[in-house]
Here is the input.
Amino acid sequence: MRVGLLTGGGDCPGLNAVIRAVVRRSLQHGFEVLGIKKGWLGLVTPEVRPLTLDAVSGILHVGGTILATSRCNPFKLDHGAERVLEHFSALGLDAVIAVGGEGTMRKAHRFATLGMPLVGVPKTIDNDLPGTDATFGFDTAVAIATEAIDRLHSTAEAHNRVMVVEVMGRDVGWIATYAGLAGGADVILIPEVPWDIEEVCRLIKRRHWRGKTFSIVVVAEGVRFSEEDEPGGIAHRLAREIETRTQFETRVTVLGHIQRGGSPTAYDRILATRFGIYAADMVQRGEFGRMAALRGREVISVPLEEAATGLKKVDRDLYAIAQVFFG
Ligand code: F6P
Here is the structure.
């Protein structure tokens, strides 16, 4: 059995842990593993490398992906899907394990319906993939954002400032909610929950009236002032409005790709390893057209279609807990 393994979409900490686990388990099953470079692109224009025991040694704790990644969508390229299917056969592959977020799972689902034996593995720092309770990468991103918020507290207090911290989450506010809660944010804004600038300023002023000299506002990058607004640049606009309306000096920190870089947490290494082992076992069982997923404490499999439909939004009960600490 020859298994192709690819990582697609934005990278996230834990990808190398999955690669290592898939290869180690596959070798136990007597499979050969071919690493497909740069996501789906590596099957459009074939670019592969054999994944041996040696190739995956020493990578468990390393960020990024030794296979490289891209957001390539073969269905948008001229004869892209045909080329993928052609190269799948030409490379002598019997199955593909695709590690990715919603974009990668949507493409995996389409290739599965075209007859490719596919297994999905969920990843994303955004934690927005449906069908699984958790994705690896999220815990690391939350830890990085929480540390940043902790650090911003002391400088905010020293200067009596409002700090606006923008975290990733183009469609959902999981990182903002978790890091905001863990870091003791005074306001958290997420794309799922309507908000109002007057209310944000009221909360900050209330806090300052009761003697506090600084505030931390955490905002997910996907938050907009109005439906008509283009996404992006929210933190700077928000800071300008807060400063003008409250007269409190305000500064901005945009965490950006720092949240996706570097070594995964122990939790993410373990989750990624469990998913990798399970995915190789799914191939061995011929359990195709499905994605490994976490349900409670168990790793199970769900139809790829489940992961390819919609987004997992922030739990409103959790957001309500965070709101208790606003202002
Ligand atoms: O991985 C998802 C994500 O982190 C989003 O939150 C963010 O908008 C996006 O990736 C940015 O990624 P890139 O700069 O690689 O397109």
Residues 138-260 form a domain with the Rossmann fold fold (CATH 3.40.50.460). The pocket of 6-O-phosphono-beta-D-fructofuranose is lined by residues 10, 124-126, 168-170, 221, 260 (CB under 6 Å). Residues 33 and 51 are 5 Å apart (CA to CA). The first strand starts at residue 2 and ends at 7.
